[in-house]
Amino acid sequence: MTAMTPGSNIPLPTAHVVVDVAAPVRLDVSGLLLTADGKVRSDDDFIFYNQPSGPGVSHRSGGGSAPDAIVVDTAALPPGIEKIVVTASPDAAGQTFEGIEPTATVRNAQDGSELATFTPPRLGTETALVIVEIYLRNGAWKVRAVGQGYANGLAGIATDFGVSVEEPAAPAPVPASAPPMPQAPPAPAADPRVAAPAAAAPPAAPAPAAAGRINLDKGRVSLRKNETVSLVKAGKPLLSQVKMGLGWEPAFRGKDIDLDASVIAYGPQRNHIDSCYFGKLSILGGAVKHSGDNLTGEGAGDDEVIVVDLGRIPAETTALVFTVNSFTGQKFTEVAKAYCRLIDAASGEELVRFDLTDAEPQTGVLMAKLIRQFSGEWEMTAVGDFVKSRTVRGMVKPGAQAL
Hints:
The protein is mainly β. The protein is built from two helices and 28 strands. It has helices at 153-160, 396-401; strands at residues 2-3, 9-11, 16-22, 27-34, 46-47, 53-54, 57-60, 69-73, 83-90, 103-108, 114-118, 128-137, 140-150, 221-223, 228-230, 232-233, 236-237, 241-250, 260-266, 272-276, 282-283, 288-290, 304-309, 319-325, 335-344, 350-355, 364-372, 378-387. The strands form five sheets. The chain has a seven-stranded mixed β-sheet, with no helix packed on it. A seven-stranded mixed β-sheet has the order 14-26-25-18-23-22-21, with no helix packed on it. It is elongated and about 65 Å long.
């Protein structure tokens, strides 16, 4: 059984699998059948408790005593279906995933044996999640851990994948001269997970952009803690050289501050592959290079720069975590204006920036992480977590836990 991390994938050894999603609260679990363009063919491809079966995919209720599940038979999927997305949202209206992290378990449907588990980390205001995907690649079916959050519930997921979302019609205005009428009980709200609108209804307006699905199309992105940007521009993944610039200033005038920036490379099981820092300026065959140590932190601009050739990162490396630590023991309460920024190495254009706004009396901080998706593009997430460590070696375990 494999414990998966965001972006990791494994081959499916069987055509018939069950994905159940458990949490401390009751969840609504759904499945969507997607074509190569990432959309459903019609609303019939949205499988959930009120529409529990479709070709090759079905919903299985746990009845409140067991997790709900999506059952997939890849051999029975219609031609043209290349991906099954498994989603979940809390059953209670408006409840977020903060403090109730769900766990998806992929099982062999024949004997119930566990193939993989995945618990999306660091959830907060999300009210719906794409948890895992079962997808076709080069003639073979695989499962990928996703953990993509949406702040606008299952309606946001449904709209994103092309399902029509029926919205309650606005009440007709009452003429000013009309006498008061008895107020009828309010009509029940439409279920955001279903149903095709009536034939005469206009198409639903697009939902707001899903939380965490920002890309680079609108220019520089400024991230807050735990926010994510997809390194995709004009529909194409960014696979050229980028620079991660890290900078800081002393909080007290005239006092030097000696911090060390590093990047730690991990494999799909959070396994440590290598670390790049002032004592090892190049790793991964030269795909990651460090500019060298800055001993004072003084002056404008980046204090230390790490160059990453995204297109040359070896396949076995699926995540990079960028850290800053204080070898001499100075705390981050003695640091001002700490930040990291991602720069296009060719043009010098700043693509993404994260300014560290909080400070804790610790000697290390996890600044940001880059995670490779199964389709090849990279995502950058602002982390901003403080840890007790003065060396890159001590950052390896906290970095793995942040993935």
